[in-house]
Amino acid sequence: MNSLNEINKIMQKIKNVNPLVHCLTNYVTVNDVANSLLSIGTSPIMADSIDEVEEIVSISKALYINIGTLNSPVLKSMEVAQNLAVSKNIPVILDAVGAGASSLRNKSTISILERSVDIVHGNYSEIAYIASSVSNTKGVDASSLDESLDIISMAKKVAKKYNCICVATGEKDIITDSETTYVVKNGCREMGNITGTGCMLTGLIAASAAVEEDFLLASTYATALMAISGERAFENYRGLGSFHVNIFNELSTIDEYIFEGAIKIEKL
């Protein structure tokens, strides 16, 4: 990959800048998102009250919106935060958790995308729904996708339609701006057995976008970092509990040499 040196620089940029990332994320995985961001040298803040979202967005380097646990007050906070972030040119990153599973999630996903996002992340099922408006999901399970669907084409369609970077994660991770596409082949299936790995990844993407203006590059770095950390954490697998903790251990200790030696990536 020609941009590998540039990708490696993102790791150091995050540590040098220590960006503040505003996370409007779900209560199931909020702790995991915070700890994953802390592990790589980022300052997370989880402020979803309508009374302070504008203040927090104003001092943040990126806004991360996650629709995993929706309700009316949070949706309003997301709208206010996103509108301000867009007006101030602060990167907006969406995790479309469960898109395709309910009318509330579907409507919210499209509304957020139409207000403008810089990066959208979802598993194969979620990205397929955004691309086609046809549900292929039974919730947040990537394995429920009809395998006959061309996820690369769908990711490109989403990126082009909403003028954003699309990250589709599954057996292989797809990152595209509709013209240039990277496929990350790291990771392991067992990462899907832990609630929160997808949410953690989107946090890493937001942290990377906070310091790197090339959002395709930033998204590719973060996706590879999460996948490599999961892959390495699984090497000494003893069960889901220790595996979960070891992902944080790997995120906090990986360096550019380990990253460069481990990354498996293809440019299409």
Automatic annotation (TrEMBL):
Chain residues that bind ATP: H121, T169
Biochemical pathway: Cofactor biosynthesis; thiamine diphosphate biosynthesis; 4-methyl-5-(2-phosphoethyl)-thiazole from 5-(2-hydroxyethyl)-4-methylthiazole: step 1/1
SUPFAM superfamilies named in the record: Ribokinase-like
Binding site for substrate: M46, G196
GO molecular function: ATP binding; hydroxyethylthiazole kinase activity; magnesium ion binding
InterPro entries: Hyethyz_kinase (IPR000417), Ribokinase-like (IPR029056)
GO biological process: thiamine biosynthetic process; thiamine diphosphate biosynthetic process
Stated role: Catalyzes the phosphorylation of the hydroxyl group of 4-methyl-5-beta-hydroxyethylthiazole (THZ).
Similarity remark: Belongs to the Thz kinase family.
Name listed for the protein in its UniProt record: Hydroxyethylthiazole kinase
Organism: Anaerosphaera aminiphila DSM 21120
Species lineage: Bacteria, Bacillati, Bacillota, Tissierellia, Tissierellales
